Amino acid sequence: MSDAAQPEMHESARARKVIQIVFALFCFEVGLILLLLPWTLLWDNNYFLSLPVWREFWTNSYVRGGVSGLGLLNLWIAAAEGFRLWR
């Protein structure tokens, strides 16, 4: 392997590490939003609740729990990525 190829590999490894960190932070942020948002007043005051057809769906506790479950899944992915990067 030539000396010119060595810095390129180092730069690509660094770029890959940055992308993995950004992905873990993104999953963490989305997870927190999806976990907490369904149980706030912001969820109850959204555009879809102005439509009577959607009101019953959006205010259903099972829908809120499902969205929170997706948030937990995103937090799990973020934690797994964080531990993988830490090793």
Tally of contiguous helical segments: 4
State the low-pLDDT regions, or none. none
Mean pLDDT: 88
Which percent range fits the helix content?
Answer: over 70%
Order of helices and strands: HHHH
Question: What structural category characterises the helix and strand content?
Answer: mainly alpha
Shape: elongated
Strand content: under 5%
Oligomer designation? single chain
- Taking all Cα atoms into account, the compactness measure Rg is 20 Å
Straight-line N-to-C gap: 28 Å
Biggest sheet overview = none
The total of beta strands comes to 0
Number of domains: 1
Q: Main attributes?
A:
87 residues; mainly alpha; 4 helices
Describe how the helices and strands are arranged.
Elements: H1 5-36, H2 41-44, H3 52-58, H4 61-86
Helix pairs in contact: 1-4
What does this structure look like?
The protein has 87 residues and is mainly α. It has one domain. Helices cover 79% and strands 0% of the residues. The chain is built from four helices and no strands. It has helices at 5-36, 41-44, 52-58, 61-86. The longest helix has 32 residues, at 5-36. The radius of gyration is 20 Å and the shape is elongated. The two termini are 28 Å apart. The model has no long low-confidence stretch (mean pLDDT 88).
Short précis:
The protein has 87 residues and is an all-alpha fold.
